[in-house]
Specification:
3-stranded antiparallel sheet; globular; 14% helix
């Protein structure tokens, strides 16, 4: 096993509170210099099994200083509500893809938070 793959497995364990990875990917990615901006990302939602979770559960992170957004559900509708004004270009990550016919990469740039053992913060 390569040193980088071992490091990826160790990081997975930290992000998933001790859970062992069931699979790993080692990809050769040509990281482009040019990107097409799609917009800014106020919130990210992903599904993961962490710790002793038996099923996937949603993890929701609002970007910007001091959690400027709140997500709530009303009558089956998901509502993103601003809790304060946001400086979009300074506080929010940029969502971008490479300028290819069928992009296989999707990236966040200008991320202001941290990635810690608890996951995405800020």
């Amino acid at each position: 096993m390569s040193r980088k793959l071992k490091a990826a497995k160790d990081l997975y364990r930290r992000f998933h509170w001790g859970r062992e990875p069931k699979e790993a990917l080692e990809l050769n990615v040509d990281f482009p210099k040019e990107w097409v901006v799609l917009g800014h990302v106020p919130v990210i939602v992903y599904l993961a099994k962490k710790g002793r979770d038996k099923t996937y559960r949603p993890y929701i992170h609002s970007f910007g200083k001091g959690e400027p957004f709140e997500i709530k559900e009303e009558n089956g509708k998901i509502i993103l509500e601003a809790k304060r004004d946001v400086n979009i270009t300074e506080e929010l990550p940029i969502l971008a893809v490479p300028p290819t016919t069928k992009p296989e990469l999707l990236a966040l740039f200008n991320f202001q938070g941290k990635i810690t053992d608890r996951g995405i913060e800020g």
